[in-house]
Amino acid sequence: MTDHEAAPTHPDRRLSTKEAAELLGVKPETVYAYVSRGQLSSRREPGGRGSTFDAKEVAALARRNRREPSGGSTIGGELSVRTRITLIDKDRYFFRGVDATELAARHSYEEIAEWLWTGRLRPGITFTAPDPSVAVARRAVDALPEHSGPTDRLRVATIAAATAEPLRFDLSEDAVLGTARTLIPTLVAALPPLRRDHRDEGPLAGRLWGRLTGRAPDAASLRVLDTALGLLIDHDLAASTLAVRVAASARAHAYAAVSAGLGVLEGPLHGAASGLAHRLLLDVLDQGDAAPVVADELRAGRRIPGLGHRLYPGEDPRARALFALLEEVPGAAPALAAAHDVVATSARHTPLHANVDLALAVLTVASGMPASAGETVFAVARTAGWIAHALEEYQERPLRMRPSGRYVGARPPQPLPR
What we know:
It is a single chain. By secondary structure, the protein is mainly alpha-helical. It is about 50% helix and about 5% strand. The protein has 18 helices and 8 strands. It has a 3-stranded antiparallel beta sheet. Strands 6-7-8 form a 3-stranded antiparallel beta sheet. Helix 1 crosses helix 2 (about 30-35) and helix 6 packs across helix 8. The longest helix has 22 residues, at about 375-395. The protein is globular, with a radius of gyration of 24 Å. The chain starts with 13 loop residues before the first strand and ends in a 24-residue tail after the last helix.
């Protein structure tokens, strides 16, 4: 009998939490995590002290877990990690089996984040930052040089907020969820506001807006920003998300795991990509035609920013959703036309479709935001997804994300260097 197998049970009897945990080969807390994510159902018996579980349902989950080993594997030469968070399939993607674009169209960023973490929808939920965390994060961010980028500020704010939380090493699900609900608004509050009349209240998108542009928001623009945050919450095992899972596998606390994600996000092939698309659109608007701008990019041997995605053979569904909303934004028509011109012009050279970076660039250009604004939106949004992956990884075997190196250097023994 293996560690993950228990003696057979009568299929009609109810199991206690301890019995269910033994059959599944997990801790009792993990059994409740399965319940919160909809993988198990529980029932409290009349007069009973704890929850009980259907023996057949527990046995079926145990069989599934044995068929799907918790460690990473390789498929087609790439690392493959079991996850129940995001599925990307052709030109669509799904959060826990639900179409992500439909979810973002109907629910706020905070509602989607809460549902992704717990499997429960809480209409109208907003995240509130505790004053001590905001104070220490703002002091840390204010001490940075003026030329610091958005990811620099968010990474420093994350580390500073961690120092204000002495219980950050508690990796129980409730503790990590508490961290998530306060860290994200703390990161937003730590960024310097660009409007004197800005107030930190209401949905997160409104609070973030005043830190991206000095312009007053309109309802259509706020809707685009909130939808963008929801669409960008997660995208399977992107490079930054993998870094988060590696940190969580080593049982780093949630702040440290988010910091690991922010460190990877800053690369030009990841979170900073929208800034390149922003500058491209400004050049197109300045010249009045995409052709010479696209020609300059091709002549320099560069990829056209905002086009193509290795996971989508057609148009990025996130871009499609945002472009539709941008049609309703006052003053967005010139930037939107420039983006469509870039796509049409580039199609003569190679059949690439718009990705989310181009759609995000339309929002930032039309709203008078700096080129780095898209990176800020991306980082704030993705923090919720990183927390979801950290929560999932904490339920797995520790240090499973430790691959073995394939040594290709000089064979020993070699002489000592002189």
